[in-house]
């Protein structure tokens, strides 16, 4: 890119900018702000109405402000020890601050979740949320079917015929 900078396209410049920012995240020289970041990390929690994605983005921003970065993609430089500590702290706080206990428990049951990446923790939380929603939906459908069977049974006992036969009787008795 540097050798051919006079022939670089806008896309090349944008790619370089993204790679550069990933390699060298912004650093704050304001010590007072750093103290606030530490307090923010310690109090990081998902808001009651905050989406998982918004909470993840807020956590990413906190990681950036704490001079850290997420685990690198292939080809990027490895994390410095201080970055690894900062990342691990943010991941633990991110998971601990999840509003839904069942999502938190499901994600924390995964081995090595704290040594992966913030993105990995977020993806695991989204996956757990989706699985839990599917299970809850299946349970709701099962309960509705059970209720319907009970209703049919009571109907059969009271009217000595199955519910489906009664529907046919009603359809036949309607004026046309």
From TrEMBL:
Domain of life: Eukaryota
Record's protein name: Retrotransposon gag domain-containing protein
Species annotation: Golovinomyces cichoracearum
């Amino acid at each position: 890119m540097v050798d051919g900078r006079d022939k670089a396209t806008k896309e090349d410049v944008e790619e370089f900018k993204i790679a550069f920012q990933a390699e060298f995240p912004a650093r704050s020289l304001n010590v007072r702000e750093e103290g606030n970041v530490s307090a923010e990390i310690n109090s990081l929690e998902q808001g009651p109405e905050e989406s998982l994605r918004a909470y993840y983005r807020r956590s990413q921003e906190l990681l950036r402000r704490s001079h850290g970065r997420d685990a690198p993609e292939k080809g990027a430089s490895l994390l410095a020890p201080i970055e690894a500590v900062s990342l691990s702290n943010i991941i633990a706080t991110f998971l601990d601050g999840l509003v839904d206990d069942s999502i938190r428990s499901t994600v924390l049951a995964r081995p090595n979740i704290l040594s992966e990446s913030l993105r990995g923790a977020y993806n695991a939380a989204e996956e757990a949320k989706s699985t839990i929603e599917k299970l809850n939906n299946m349970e709701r459908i099962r309960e509705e079917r059970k209720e319907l069977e009970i209703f049919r049974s009571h109907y059969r006992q009271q009217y000595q015929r199955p519910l489906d036969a009664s529907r046919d009787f009603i359809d036949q008795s309607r004026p046309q």
